[in-house]
Amino acid sequence: MSERMSERMSERMGERTTERSSTTTTTADANRGPDDGVPALLSVTDLSAWYGEARVLTDVSVTVAPGEVATLVGRNGAGKTTLLRSVMGLHKQVKGTVSLDGSDLGRRSPDARARAGIGWVPDDRGIYASLSVEENLMLPPVVHDSAWSMEKVYDHFPVLAQRRDFPGTKLSGGEQQMLAMARVLRMGSRLLLLDEPSEGLAPVIVQRIGEIIREIKAQGVGVLLVEQNVAFARSVADRHYLLAQGKVVEHLSNDALAARESELLTHLGM
Ligand SMILES: Nc1ncnc2c1ncn2[C@@H]1O[C@H](COP(=O)(O)OP(=O)(O)OP(=O)(O)O)[C@@H](O)[C@H]1O
Hints:
Blueprint: H1 3-14, H2 27-30, E1 42-51, E2 54-64, E3 69-73, H3 80-87, E4 94-100, E5 103-104, H4 110-116, E6 118-121, H5 133-138, H6 150-156, H7 158-162, H8 173-187, E7 191-195, H9 203-218, E8 222-226, H10 230-236, E9 239-244, E10 247-253, H11 254-259, H12 261-268
Parallel strand pairs: 3-8, 3-9, 6-7, 7-8
Antiparallel strand pairs: 1-2, 1-4, 4-5, 9-10
Helix pairs in contact: 1-4
Family: Belongs to the ABC transporter superfamily.
Organism: Humibacillus xanthopallidus
Pfam families: ABC_tran
């Protein structure tokens, strides 16, 4: 693998209020899973982030339990992608704690975080255009014994089996999204960071992506999902963190989000 490709691999593996809330996040909440007795897979505690002098996240705390889907919702610029990038270790100007299975990841590199079980699916999907579907799937290392076999990948994503020899350039947006998700599952990632997986996709493909997220969840994988499409977020997630100006301003159950969907769409520009 060339140095450039290796660098890009690391990037891909790594990467690139109101009081009406039904539940409001506190630091104490962030240290345990959402359900009593369920330890968090991911705990982000009091995370702040900067670009130069500009502070874009302030004391954000979120958790994701195994087999749980939590979303980050909020208008453009709220800090959602920066939070995912910080969890992956791609954004380095941060303060606060990110723990996986109770272990503080400290200053570990994106590559080390990927090896620890965090899978990054960036909004541009990060497919290697010159490589075939199969090569894209085979390139990253297997990092955990829960890694999906190629048979399992093709069983869950039959379209990828049909396209296995196609170069990345010949895939539709939906196929690229499925390939990006399949790639981290083949690695054995236990926590997926998904950045707007429904963006730009036809409704029928969005529906399929939703089915896949529910299947992944049923297998115990945790998902932290950035999503602007509230209906889609509601259809796959258990809980929602509402971000505004770099802060978690509300922590909503799925029912609470549903009850306030039109208000959120109108007032938050989502
Ligand atoms: N590379 C960068 N340099 C400087 N500021 C940045 C950079 N990337 C993002 N920002 C700023 O950080 C803030 C948070 O951006 P971020 O992309 O995390 O928000 P977001 O909620 O994911 O929104 P979007 O969906 O538009 O990406 C915004 O004010 C944005 O302008």
